[in-house]
Specification:
The protein is mainly β. The chain is built from seven helices and 33 strands. Helix content is 9%, strand content 46%.
């Protein structure tokens, strides 16, 4: 089945504003094992890593989110959560700010290891986007606390250890990407250097950005190149389209909806450390600078905490990944505003795409797919189509019905 163009979701929670607690929230995390190696089954969702754990006698699914400093819970406060005296003033990926209480989890059983006193933030703002696929997530603090991981995204396995050098043999001759802490005080959320054809940029490696490749705002690209004509010329060489579109991004505390001019760039090659990505298409209709989980659909990942390195193990045993992510339809769907009575999902259409040629326009509402009414985002996200023919029905804001076959 061909993949639908899903609303990309970012679970970044960066504690960059102020800290009212005097101690680091991850200081008191404890593990039931020491000098251990543990292997367990995991789930993969568009490259995102989902770890089944046991909390308070129930199985919960926690995403491993390198873009989060600490854990998070999607939903309301549970009775078994213990609020602490620690509070943080946070900013999310939309620059929305909120003062939050840090909760302490009861023992979390992850495979054969129990994690005690794990800190997390509670918020139900993302619940409508995940449709019960995950209950919350682990942050990069698990690495900061001394753990290293191998996420085998081909066979859906995870190996976790606190032993230094455990993955040494596997890391040998594999593409390496050094990371540095986003925040010098907490030493969490990894930043990496990405080498584009026209320059080198520092980005957040965010495995919580589900299905994402590269996010780079147009205004950031312009700011980097405004005083460098050679760089601007180089960027123009890789620009396939300049268009105007609607960008929607979700954060813990809010959602942005902006109309902006953006570029669509075709990059024959860029480098993530020693790993080459070839035939990559990116758009600059975003608000953040990051790389997401899509790479993990093509390569397994070792996070070596002591070395502060990512190692990529290509599923094809190559030092390069041929991406080929060109979207010829030129179509994606964003959530409509909550008070919009005309529909739930709205089309965003590129002028050079197949959807535009078939008469679909940005702002048209998606009404049904193969006769299935799109009445909420979860229906859209969980669509399963087993037939080759796909019949889409749209309605314009003026009431015109449009039917297309893909």
């Amino acid at each position: 089945m061909k993949k639908f163009c899903l609303l990309l979701i970012c679970f970044v929670v960066l504690a960059s504003l102020s800290v009212e607690a005097q101690k680091k929230p991850f200081r008191d995390i404890h593990f039931s094992q020491h000098d251990f190696v543990d292997t367990m089954k995991i789930k993969i969702w568009d490259g995102a890593i989902i770890i089944p754990v046991e909390i308070n006698g129930e199985t919960k699914n926690l995403m491993f989110d390198t873009g989060a400093n600490w854990g998070f819970w999607i939903g309301d406060e549970e009775e078994w959560m213990k609020p602490s005296a620690e509070t943080l003033t946070l900013t999310d990926s939309q620059n929305a700010k909120m003062k939050k209480t840090i909760y302490r989890m009861p023992p979390i059983k992850m495979g054969n290891t129990t994690i005690e006193n794990y800190p997390l933030l509670v918020d139900n703002g993302m619940k409508e986007y995940v449709c019960d696929r995950i209950d919350g997530g682990f942050g990069f603090d698990l690495v900061t606390c001394g753990l290293s991981f191998k996420f085998d995204t081909k066979d859906s396995l995870m190996i976790v250890t606190d032993r230094k050098g455990f993955f040494k043999k596997e890391e040998k001759r594999q593409p390496k990407l050094k990371y540095m802490p986003y925040n010098s005080y907490y030493k969490t959320s990894p930043l990496v250097w990405i080498d584009f054809p026209w320059g080198r940029y520092k980005m957040l490696f965010d495995s919580g950005w589900i299905g994402g490749w590269i996010d780079m705002p147009e205004q950031t690209l312009n700011r980097w190149s405004e005083d460098d004509r050679k760089m601007q010329k180089k960027i123009d060489e890789y620009t396939a389209l300049i268009d105007t579109t609607v960008s929607t991004e979700a954060g813990f505390f809010g959602r942005s909806l902006d109309t902006m001019q953006y570029r669509r760039l075709h990059l024959p090659k860029l480098m993530m450390g020693d790993l080459a990505l070839q035939d990559l298409w990116i758009s600059t209709n975003s608000l953040s600078v990051k790389t997401g989980s899509a790479i993990l659909e093509h390569a397994s990942l070792i996070i070596d905490g002591p070395k502060k390195c990512f190692f990529f193990l290509s599923h094809d045993d190559q030092r390069e990944v041929v991406v080929g992510n060109e979207e010829k339809k030129g179509l994606k769907h964003n959530l409509a505003d909550k008070d919009d009575t005309l529909g739930v999902m709205k089309a965003v259409v590129r002028k050079d795409g197949e959807a535009y040629k078939k008469g679909i326009r940005s702002g048209d509402y998606l009404i049904s797919v193969n006769g299935i009414p799109i009445t909420d985002y979860c229906t859209y996200l969980n669509l399963k189509i087993d037939t080759e023919e796909r019949h889409y029905v749209y309605r314009s804001p003026q009431g015109e019905v449009k039917e297309v076959e893909w």
